[in-house]
Amino acid sequence: MKQKSTGGWRSKKKIYRRVHELDRVMELQKKPSLILQLKSIIQSQKQKCLLLRDLEKQVGFVHKWNFMAVIEKYPSIFHVGGGSNRKPPFVTLTEKAEKIANEEEVARELMEPILVKNLRKLLMMSVDCRVPLEKIEFIESELGLPQDFKKAFLPKYGDFFTVKDTNGKPYLYLQNWDASLAVTAREERLAREGVLDSAGAQKRVRITKDGNYSGPNAFKICFPTGFRPNTSYLEQLERWQRMEFPSPYLNARRFELADPKARKRVVAVLHELLSLTMEKRMTSAQLDAFHSEYMLPHKLLLCLIKHHGIFYITNKGARSTVLLKEAYDGSNLIDKCPLLLCNDKFVALSGRREINSCNGKSLS
Questions:
Q1: What angle do CA 343, 354, 118 make, to 5 degrees?
Q2: pLDDT over 70 at 11, yes or no
Q3: pTM above the 0.90 mark?
């Protein structure tokens, strides 16, 4: 009889395989994030000029030194002047940097229809077509919303959104349902590939060793390098890939989570949520914050780990972050919205290769 110590009574411990290229996504964002944050601070000043003595008030004592290092390292972006008795030291954008920074206004204008569409879809997926306003604020930068979106953005689109107090808390409500928007990013990709059009007359296709299957209910699978699934695993995955499931845009209250189809629907909800963000990623805390609005499983982490061919969890950076694997080619985000393209152009002034180079497509 096998001894327990040999593992005869236990299944092998599953190891979560790291994807170094996706871990690098967070590492590569550190310096650009500082550059873009400092740019925003300078532009928010009346004279578009920041006294260095006021930098600490903006970012705190500890982070001040990180920003000082950035100012010193990138004279092509930040110009330091003053220092005499008449005028204390200050920092402004260089002429070239300011010219590119001013292009952000055009990028923001191009973003508006994208933001309206994505925010409507976000509300359409929620169980009551409403989300607490504080939760929208929690992911405003991930969505690409302007910081003053409550005052400047929402009032412009009163036909689509309204803010109401519910149980003493402000909620963002969807004004009207639009069936044309109830199409997921996954379905749009399959339509582009012609899978949905030919699904009815499709021949039986077996799943490949990389986990992918050409079918209307299938998800794009990206296994980590070195992962070699056995036949049993692939057979189970094929059954799962073939399984029909309800749309994320149908009310979640209609389904029992114990139903395998409803569990697959949860994967589709998470996939769609990440697809609605600019960089196809959210922190674990941000995803978990929407637990009640989208009726996500209590063991959300286990769900994400189980579907490691679709989602990737990285602990690099300040917070645990969930990325949509298919959205990345190595460490590079494949499709970019106008705002990210503008940010990349600005960061490129630092002399480093543009972060997450892309093919120029937008989030339309």
A1: 45
A2: no
A3: no
